[in-house]
Amino acid sequence: MKWQGKGVSEGLAMAQIHLFTPKLPEISRQPAADAEAEVAKLEATLAAAEEELRGLYETAKEKMGEQEAEIFDAHLTILGDEYSVREPIIQRIREQKQNAAAAITDQFDELAQMFRSLGDELMAERAADAEDLKQQLLRICLGCGRQDLSVLPGDVIVLAEELTPSDTVRMDTAHVKGIATRLGGATAHSAIIARTLGIPAAAGIDGWQTEALNGHMAILDGADGTLTVDPTDEETASYQSRKAQADCEAQALEAFRTCPSQTKDGAALEICANIGTPQEAQQAMKYGADGVGLFRSEFLFMDRDALPTEDEQFEAYRTAAQTMAGKPLIIRTLDVGGDKKLPTLELPHEENPFLGFRAIRMTLSHPEIFRPQLRAILRAAAYGDVRVMFPMIGSMDQLREAKALLREQEQTLQAEGVPTGPVKVGMMVEIPAAAVLAEEFAKEVDFFSIGTNDLTQYTLAVERGNAAVAHLYAPEHPAVLRLIAMTAQAAAERHIPCGMCGEAAGDPKLAPAFVGMGVNELSMSPRRVPAVRKLLSGLTMDECRQAAEKLLHP
Fold it and tell me: Beta-carbon neighbour count of residue 540 at 10 Å?
């Protein structure tokens, strides 16, 4: 039997299946006989959950590092939110006469639905956090024993509906050889932790629920997302051969964490990392990135009940800059709006959000948000090679207005006696209009960074999140590639760097062609850095140009 899902953590595993299907008892809807007694039960539940979460934070920090442990800080923040958790639950108990367990269930279900309605993948994961917290609170409130993965019968592939952050932290990682879930995706906490620990994982594995699979031998491929149950002798032999080869390749990649980024004939390149939090800068350094080509600053603005202050942003940017130890840190200014909502910012409903009020269009219209971010970036530049990048630039007026605001804040900080550093200014090339006018834009900026995700979407008129047209989304389409080549050529003529920070930058099938077009900085997931560096070190510039020509003119 074989099930097809989506690979979320690369690698191969072969072990027995361990079904993990924890169940909570059915919640009683019996009205509360004594509301104050139920409130007291709630207070005791919240206190016990807080203590448990602090313990989980320490466990996660010890097993996986501070970055992964931060999820439990986020859980503590949600739990401590008087207006979203404690007060509404007490109100349900006192005014609607609900018992504590029912009130917890309804409030957290409502909270999860709110996160899902925001229409953003990151916010969907916050819905999973709310579900995890609900289960934790109900287990404590109802006095249920904990079902977890801390004790396992041996080496296993865990098969589950979904794994919560609490499940993944408690699991016996020495014996978990693979993870397969029906729900979740690449940004789910179980997937992030699996990648951190090097455990193969797949999501979207559906249809197994009716099968008695516990204890059956299986092969999991975390690259293509397949789960093969009761493999044949031929499938087993194939797995063993591929696993041996993968182990050899992984060992060979170790040397490419520290060697220079260059082609076989010595052309210098920069292989950089994309990050979303200051802590992920540690991952960039761990895998030998030449810098951070994209710091997604919107992650600082999400999952909170107030906008981050200038000082909060400054601390985050400074931490990342210091972690990078002099290597470039390119911070993309706030890229939300339209399809990516902020709970703290009321934005109008849009019928076509991908073409709407987002990114630089939004921040230029909200200087009360933009100015503090620019000040924080300028202040952080005193601690490292910090650069700023404006997203979704489509006109010269937008670029000049953004640059003017940056210089205005620089002068203000200097007048206040606040230390700043020199900040190079770049722009994202992700709208076809920007690529077409790249020759003009190149006169106004210090660098380009091509965002292949949106450039592909806008060039081909294909919404990248729409499964019905996913087969039409192709960054290797000649039209997209010609816009990339046009941008790189304009950068070369003005002697400015041309980078790329979209998903395609780490694609081994496309990276050589991008280099051949003149893209000299590729930014990707930190884990991909050594593999792409190894690939390019084995090719000459002529071979890269030939790869580009073949794709540009098929």
Answer: 13
Amino acid at 455: L
Q: What is the pLDDT of residue 530?
A: 93
Is 553 marked active-site?
A: no
pLDDT grade, residue 271 (50/70/90)? very high
Angstrom distance (rounded) from CA 176 to CA 171: 8
Q: What own/partner pairs with CB < 8 Å and gap ≥ 24 does 49-58 have?
A: 49/79, 49/133, 49/136, 49/137, 49/140, 50/76, 50/79, 50/80, 52/136, 52/140, 53/79, 53/136, 56/165, 56/166, 56/169, 56/170
Q: pLDDT-based confidence at 315, cuts 50/70/90?
A: very high
Residue 268 is given by DSSP the state B
212-260 confidence digits (pLDDT tens): 888 999 999 998 999 999 999 999 999 999 999 988 888 888 889 989 9
DSSP states along 385-449: -EEEEESS--SHHHHHHHHHHHHHHHHHHHHHT------EEEEEE-SHHHHHTHHHHTTT-SEEE
Cβ(287)–Cβ(530) below 8 Å: yes
Among 374, 273, 378, smallest CA distance to 327 is for: 273
Considering the candidates 141, 272, 498, 501, report the single residue annotated as catalytic: 501
148 — pLDDT class (breaks 50, 70, 90): confident
| Token pair of 81 as six digits | 């939110």
**Cα dihedral 209→68→8→275 (10° resolution):** 150
Cα distance between residue 252 and residue 243, in whole Å: 14
Alpha-carbon gap, residue 129 to 77, rounded angstroms: 11
Q: How many CB atoms lie within 10 A of CB 364?
A: 15
The encoded tokens of residue 150 equal: 């801390």
Higher pLDDT, 79 or 271: 271
The DSSP bridge pattern shows strands 292-296 and 447-450 to be unpaired
Let me know: does 406 contact 425? Beta carbons within 8 Å: yes
pLDDT higher than 90, residue 526: no
The stretches of 254-395 forming alpha helices (DSSP H) are: 280-286, 310-323, 359-365, 367-380
Determine the pLDDT at residue 337.
62
Judge whether 319 and 360 are in contact, CB under 8 Å. Answer: no
| Predicted confidence (pLDDT) at residue 387 exceeds the cutoff of 90 | yes
Q: Give the H/E segment covering residue 46.
A: helix 35-64
| pLDDT range class, residue 351, cuts 50, 70, 90 | low
Which residue in the list 141, 189, 498, 544 is annotated as catalytic? 189
Active site residue 544: no
Q: Please identify which residue in the block is written with the tokens 């003017």.
A: 404
